Amino acid sequence: MEARRYHPLSILFHLWKLAKNCIFFVIYLFVIKAGSDSSFIVYGRYIFGLAVGISICSIIFKWLTNKYVLDDRSFHLYKGVFNRSEQTIPFSKIQNVNRHISVFHRFFKMTSVSFETGMKGEDAAVKFDVISQAEADRIEAYVARINEAEADGSEEPTAPPKHAENEASPAIESESTAQERTIHFTPTKRDIIKASFTSLSFLVLIPVILSFYDKAKDIFNLEEKAGGILQNILSSKWLIAVIIIAFITVSVVFGMVRTFLKYGKYEISSDPERIYITKGVVEETVFSISKDRVQAIEIEQSMLKRWLGLAEVKLISAGSSESNKSMHEINSLYPFLPVKRAYEMVSEILPSYQVTHGMNRLPQKALWLRLLRPSWLWIIVTAGLFYFKPTVLKMKEVWWMLSVALLILVLVARVLDFLNTRYALNKHFIQMQKGSLTTTLFISKRDKIIEVKVTQSKLQKLLGLASIGTINRAKPVHHADVKDVPRELAGAFYRWYIGRRSEVIAE
User: Fold this and answer.
1) CB-based contact 183:267 (threshold 8 Å)
2) Does residue 159 sit in the same domain as residue 74?
3) Which of 112, 115, 187, 273 could tie 191 with a disulfide, CB 3.0–4.6 Å?
4) For 267-317, how does the pLDDT look when each residue is reduced to its tens digit (9 = 90+)?
5) Domain termination site, one of 160, 181, 202
């Protein structure tokens, strides 16, 4: 097939991104310093104009030279004119698919899509910054169909999808595809309110105001202008009370609005082959992953979430999320799920995974070992305090009190980690939980683990303990471990992993 250029709106999209990145420089050089004759400002304007011109030419040149084509097995990406390069990415390497609709895409009824692989490097994903929703649907369906045919052993050739750049659909996915899905979770108003307080998003307004004030005070000389106003406010108790109440109200409303924009249209759904996570009100993002590509599951709980009975479920996969770093946590199922519902949802979405509620605790001697282990953090901080001997609240020789306080915190954290650590080893699964203030429950199937390790220090050997660890494909590679388990479990763990030979099929 003939190689095709990306959608022409890609030029406008990158020009829009360039304009957003240049706003600060434009305001500073041409508005705030409009009347300045400083050589720094004058030459800065010339350099800025030259940089913008080069960037615009680069955007146009890339659109003219970058092309792509799909055959019956791979993406083929072409770049450059004089130094021509070709990259081939097989469909079988595709791990995740990310869709994103920004304000720009919504205005033109377009979308962006990224086919993420488990490979390394900047070109580990096939990215379409601007593409029609119908065309994105066709390409994604085509890639999925090829992969399913290969998995079933079918060798029948499938024609590449016909291009449909002029077509547009009102949603990210086609209606026929959406009808086959089972919706597992959509947040209610109560869930949104609970999420806004659990995430402490109402506190975000404080650093925003402080950051704005810090940037504006030097430009507009706010400290001198606001000095008299501040003195008048501090002299009136009722005015202080009104300001505090107003600030709290605005912060709470700001937090709820921010949470709604992020989680208001959150939806977790699945079909027999894939899992879909949709989020965003203004800017919409869809993450999809094939169920057989899920390498492991993590269920995370902060101390606040444990008090409220909430949890966050994360899917660990080998796909790269570097294609859009603003979409971190997109592989997370709703971060504020009730614990019981979180466990149920894991079984609903991934029937091949099982969550064991009855887990084993560490032996008592593991606690003594943890308490006796030296803390390098405490040693280094204590040495620094002894050397500098800082004065706190006009109190001298307070360094030893700070050292004792830090030691108590370290010991408390170790005790909590001991109490929270659990493990379970089933026929095909392993579960490991650890953490002090924040706990993480790791669940993986034996055939998804690529490497295990068993270690034993001299103290552990003396007490009949050991440490076990697993490695799963992810970006970066995911490590999970549990320290100070009984030595007998370490041997059983190794034999358990050897038993995967009958489950893994070599490609």
Assistant:
1) yes
2) yes
3) 187
4) 999 988 889 999 888 888 888 888 888 999 999 999 888 888 889 999 888
5) 181
Residue 501's SS3 state is helix
Q: Same domain, yes or no, for 167 and 35?
A: yes
Share of the chain above pLDDT 90, in %: 42
Asked if residue 338 has pLDDT above 60, the reply is yes
Q: What are the tens digits of pLDDT across the range 384-402? A: 998 888 887 777 778 899 9
Instruction: Tell whether 18 and 73 lie within a shared domain.
Output: yes
Total count of domains within the chain: 3
In whole angstroms, give the CA distance from residue 349 to residue 113: 23
Q: Indicate the residue among 217, 238, 263 that finishes a domain.
A: 263
At 377, list the tokens: 């953090």
141, two tokens: 């369906």
Find where tokens 């057989």 sit: 292
- DSSP track, 403-420: HHHHHHHHHHHHHHHHHH
Same domain (yes/no): 15, 80 = yes
Q: Which residues contact 426 (CB under 8 A, 6 or more apart)?
A: 354, 356
Of 388, 389, 408, nearest to 399 (Cα)?
Answer: 389
